[in-house]
Amino acid sequence: MLRRNKTVLASAILLGLYSGGEVYAADSITSAVKEGSYKLSFRARYEYVDVADKDTAEKEAVDDANAVTLKTRLTAITAPYYGFKVGLEFDDVTAIVDRYNTPAEPSNADKEMVVDPEGTEINQAYLEYGIGKTSIKYGRQRILLDNQRFVGGVGFRQNEQTYDGLTVVNKSLPDTTLFYGFVNNVNRIVGESLAGGDHDNRTHLLNAGYSGLGFGKFSTYAYVIDNDDAAAFSSKTMGVRFSGSTDVGSVGLLYTAEYATQSDFADNPVDYDADYFVLEGGVKAAGVTAKLGYESLEGDENKEGAFFRTPLATLHKFQGWTDKFLGGGTGNIKHGIDDLYFTVGGNVAGVKLMGVYHDYETNDGGIDLGSEYAFVVAKKFD
Fold this sequence. Notes:
Layout: E1 5-19, H1 29-34, E2 37-51, H2 56-61, E3 65-77, E4 84-99, E5 119-131, E6 134-141, E7 162-170, E8 176-187, E9 198-210, E10 217-225, E11 235-248, E12 251-264, E13 273-285, E14 288-298, E15 336-348, E16 351-362, E17 368-378
Antiparallel strand pairs: 1-2, 2-3, 3-4, 4-5, 5-6, 6-7, 7-8, 8-9, 9-10, 10-11, 11-12, 12-13, 13-14, 14-15, 15-16, 16-17
């Protein structure tokens, strides 16, 4: 059964400093540096985790987690010089209160888990070349595709997931974005100090999006993951997605439909085929948005490891915010997961309010996995 987690979060941007020039090409390398953009930001977070339904022995062995962390980020991007730009981004995560367990801190094994390890890393370091409506980027970089269900950055956590490789984005065709990426390393959220913090890859990512319909965006994709360090992550995925909105009078109708099929690839020890789909509908009226959705990741209870997996996804966005179904980074469990969810939210005096409900069961066998309630109160300050 799903354990009932109670997680309390507080995070804020404490300071933002910015200076930058126009987008025109600089006339010298010195000008490219002077006219670039530079940002310094701080994000403080308090996270408390209490797993309430452990039995007495477990509860005595593991204490609640209290994590106060500070992420300091410095970003520098030069202005274009003959089409070339250089981007550098450094992150430092410091624990102010470290009464929590992370994969990289076995000394705190008696505490609940919060995946915000300490460390200083190069988050991005790339050379970008732009010509016409094509951009080529080589190096360590952020890759966010569609809604990040398959490829994302896990920006919720203090240590972001980034990728080492080559990406090409072309927008020559009207209302069309073509993306290709080759990834040779994944810098994961657990940090470089952990053995599994970096995964060597020979991964190809293709995504084509068309937004010229006026009432939504259509995407098709193929993601071929060859993971040398975690063979169980290797897979071939092909899918289609449509998401958009349209107004009917004063009411906005929201809709999303997506389907993908996946099979094992490269050295994956399991021979499997699995499907994924999501259907979501919603309405927006009088400043309130409500959505009802159903997401399914297929699994086979009779074959170990035969389930749909999403190892490069921003997993925290999906299947609930208590992260109970991460599956060692696969994003699924043995029997697969079906998730019926409902969200409702709006803004009151500039404050974002949202409530979320999930009801889970296994895809194969229909076993009840429990439910989750979650609430968000957020406000941005200039």
